[in-house]
Amino acid sequence: MQALIEKIRAFNGEREWGRYHSPKNLVMALAGEVGELIEHFQWLTQEQSRHLPAAKKVAVEDEIGDVTLCLLNLADQLGVDIVEAPAVSSNATGRTTPSRGPEAAPTSTTSWAQESQDEREA
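Above: the chain's sequence. Below: its structure in token form.
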């Protein structure tokens, strides 16, 4: 991962993009790239989204690459270890979305977090 981050830094440096890569700008760019990724799935059924035609899969892969680059740039700017971040995420540790079994569809992270808090206080 570190080699990839170094390669991205070099790429950005060659283009003098550092002045544009504030965390605020990178988050905004990330949101835009996620929006472009979403466009490929809008209006598809769940089944269609699991079995993309080859051309669409290539386009989705490109957008995932753009999202990943934005996220890696953001993490780098903030000094966040991108490999360790998922391990400390509230979602990964179950603090905000405790397991309710496969039949429990999430309604919202906030409501589950509140239910969890209520259970601890009971």
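The mean pLDDT is 86.
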